[in-house]
Write a structure and sequence with these properties.
Blueprint: E1 9-12, H1 17-28, E2 33-36, E3 49-52, H2 60-67, E4 72-76, H3 84-97, E5 102-108, H4 118-132, E6 136-142, H5 148-152, E7 158-161, E8 167-168, H6 173-185, E9 197-200, E10 206-207, H7 208-219, E11 224-227, H8 230-239, H9 244-258, H10 268-273
Parallel strand pairs: 1-2, 1-4, 2-3, 4-5, 5-6, 6-9, 7-11
Antiparallel strand pairs: 8-10
Helix pairs in contact: 1-6, 2-3, 3-4, 8-9
The structure holds NADP nicotinamide-adenine-dinucleotide phosphate (NAP).
Length: about 290
């Protein structure tokens, strides 16, 4: 039987944790790719993949040149800058201008105009833009990364915040990448994922204490979670010298978990990948402590 020939996919964020996993999975399936980065020298070398850039999302000309020749764009959301809508909208418009007819956007679970988690609000703005942009699209809302508590730990491996005993369905990068790959391989003339909003979660809703205990088990290192009051959380971060926006963003992350709105477990991982979602303890990778700030 002849191998299936796939159309070319442009993958952004491929110097990062999520995009690199998507690129590796697509390469394993023989999908031709354009890997797009601000610093193309940091892109992985993969079969059937061209390295493109330098292209930042808000540089329309560079993005047009970088994604030209692709049918589909995977837009991994950029880091929070206060300008994410402009950055993402510019990237989408640049792609459609050179013939990309499908966009798969990596959004965030809980994206809403009034989301408790500050960084979830501008994901909602991008989702609205995409819905009106007149291009085939799928929104993949990534759940809270299993790796984030490890990145939030201090040098003593302590994670401190006002998360209380709220629960979240933490999900691994590998599972999000697997879902994105399944969506991308189902390219159709019209995919069942067109217009869909897929909420990608892990298999169980954990408190921060439970999630951090699984990180400790996985790494063999003594990570622990110490709940803070809201007031303690603000004062400690301010005295650490963090800027106000970052203080608000991180505290709102804990408050979103405390509020329970990120605790629903969905069937997206097993339904699209055919395998159960990984538990936190099964994650393949842990960022260094302190990386989140
Ligand atoms: N679901 C969650 O819990 C969660 C947690 C944290 C973040 N996120 C979001 O998910 C995204 C991907 O996560 P990740 O773990 O893969 O993050 P990551 O390792 O920091 O990778 C982010 C990637 O996006 C690229 N990028 C960022 N801003 C860009 C811009 N303006 N123009 C072009 N490229 C840009 C980065 O390029 P460079 O290498 O050039 O910087 C990098 O390749 C993050 O960027 C963030 O929006 C989600």
């Amino acid at each position: 039987m002849a191998e299936q020939a796939y159309a070319t996919v442009a993958v952004t964020g491929a110097t990062g944790a999520l995009g690199s996993r998507v690129a590796r999975r697509l390469a394993e399936q023989g999908v031709p790719q354009l890997l797009v980065a601000r610093d193309p020298d940091r892109l992985p070398e993969l079969p059937a993949a061209q390295r493109r850039g330098p292209a930042a999302y808000d540089d329309a000309q560079a993005m047009r040149a970088a994604v030209e020749g692709a049918s589909t764009l995977v837009l991994v959301s950029g880091r929070p800058t206060g300008r994410r809508l402009e950055e993402h909208a510019t990237a989408v418009e640049a792609a459609t201008a050179v013939g990309v007819d499908r966009v798969v956007y990596v959004s965030l679970l809980g994206a809403a105009p009034d989301a408790t988690y500050r960084n979830a609000r501008d994901h909602w703005l991008t989702e609205q833009f995409l819905a009106g942009a007149g291009v085939r699209h799928t929104v993949v809302r990534a759940g809270i990364y299993a790796s984030t508590p490890a990145a939030l730990a201090d040098d003593a491996l302590t994670v401190r915040g006002p998360g209380g005993t709220g629960r979240a369905a933490f999900v691994t990068h590998e599972d999000i990448a697997a879902v994105l790959t399944a969506v991308l391989l189902d390219e159709g003339p019209a995919s069942e994922h067109d217009g869909a909003v897929l909420e990608v979660t892990g298999p169980e809703a954990l408190t921060l204490e439970e999630a951090v205990a699984q990180i400790a088990e996985s790494t063999g290192r003594p990570y622990r979670y110490v709940p803070e009051t809201l007031e303690e959380a603000f004062v400690r971060r301010w005295r650490m010298g963090l800027p106000g926006e970052q203080i608000e963003a991180w505290i709102s992350w804990y408050l979103a978990i405390a509020g329970g709105g990120l605790s629903a477990v969905t069937d997206v991982v097993p339904r699209l990948t055919g395998a159960p979602a990984a538990r936190v303890v099964e994650a393949d990778w842990w960022p260094a402590p302190g990386r989140a700030s």
